């Protein structure tokens, strides 16, 4: 609303909470640092995994917004590009409440953009200005409790939630300690809060 008042209560207005729940909150720390997830990281050939960021995404009933097609490496760039996204469905994710969509094999198409910090602020650096072939996106409808693994280069999106049901998700992004995480990435940790492993 123009005057800054909320249309509905605060709990149903929050878009997402991030980006260090796994380090700041004991509940999310416990959820994110399990032997099973540590094994998953090893299976994904992350030799020395670091938990880079976490987000609680609410996708609220009726007002949950669209997330346009993107690659996570655009925002969380590493050299080499080995970031992995873990997307946990905390509720059933369906076509009606805005499930994820992804382009099968799209992680082989190369990085289109980087969101970089420059002298005058953040900007996109574009390597490939061709739009995503959105007709190749397929829906990833999943049950509550499912985990979707996202390669950092996989193009994915989610549509707006116009339904009466929320579509809550928790995401965690992992990198390998041996990869370079540039100082001009948007997300930076203060020195007093270094990234940690499992
Ligand atoms: O959960 C969603 O709707 C989209 C999340 C996503 O694409 C992301 O955080 O990179």
Write the CATH architecture name.
Sandwich
Q: Which percent range fits the helix content?
A: 10-25%
Name of the top-level CATH class: Mainly Beta
| Multimerization status | single chain
List keywords for this structure.
Jelly Rolls; five-stranded antiparallel β-sheet; four-stranded antiparallel β-sheet; binds 2-oxoglutaric acid; 4 helices; 198 residues; single chain
Could you characterize the architecture of this molecule?
Helix content is 12%, strand content 29%. It starts with 15 loop residues before the first strand and ends in a 22-residue tail after the last strand. It has a five-stranded antiparallel sheet. A four-stranded antiparallel sheet has the order 3-10-5-8, with no helix packed on it. A two-stranded antiparallel sheet has the order 6-7. The protein has one domain (15-176): q2cbj1_9rhob like domain (Jelly Rolls). It has four helices and eleven strands. The protein is an alpha+beta fold and 198 residues long. It has helices spanning 21-24, 26-32, 35-43, 72-75, and strands at 16-19, 49-57, 67-70, 84-89, 100-102, 113-118, 121-126, 138-140, 147-151, 156-158, 169-176. Strand 6 (113-118) and strand 7 form a beta hairpin. It is globular, with a radius of gyration of 17 Å. It binds 2-oxoglutaric acid (AKG). 2-oxoglutaric acid (AKG) binds next to strand 10 and strand 11.
């Amino acid at each position: 609303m123009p005057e800054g008042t909320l249309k509905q209560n605060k709990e149903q207005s929050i878009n997402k909470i991030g980006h260090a729940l796994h380090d700041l909150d004991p509940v999310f720390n416990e959820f994110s640092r399990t032997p099973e997830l540590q094994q998953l990281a090893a299976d994904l050939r992350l030799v020395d995994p670091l938990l880079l960021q976490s987000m609680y995404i609410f996708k609220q009933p009726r007002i949950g917004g669209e997330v346009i097609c993107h690659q996570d490496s655009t925002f969380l760039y590493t050299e080499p590009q080995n970031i992995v996204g873990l997307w946990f469905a905390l509720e059933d994710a369906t076509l009606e409440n805005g499930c994820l969509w992804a382009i099968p094999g799209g992680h082989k198409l190369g990085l289109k953009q980087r969101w970089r910090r420059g002298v005058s602020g953040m900007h996109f650096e574009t390597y490939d200005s061709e739009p995503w072939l959105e007709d190749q996106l397929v829906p990833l409808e999943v049950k509550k409790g499912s985990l979707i693994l996202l390669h950092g280069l996989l193009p994915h999106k989610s549509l707006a939630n116009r339904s009466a049901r929320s579509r809550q998700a928790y995401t965690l992004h992992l990198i390998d300690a041996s990869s370079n995480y540039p100082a001009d990435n948007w997300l930076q940790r203060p020195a007093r809060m270094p990234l940690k492993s499992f």
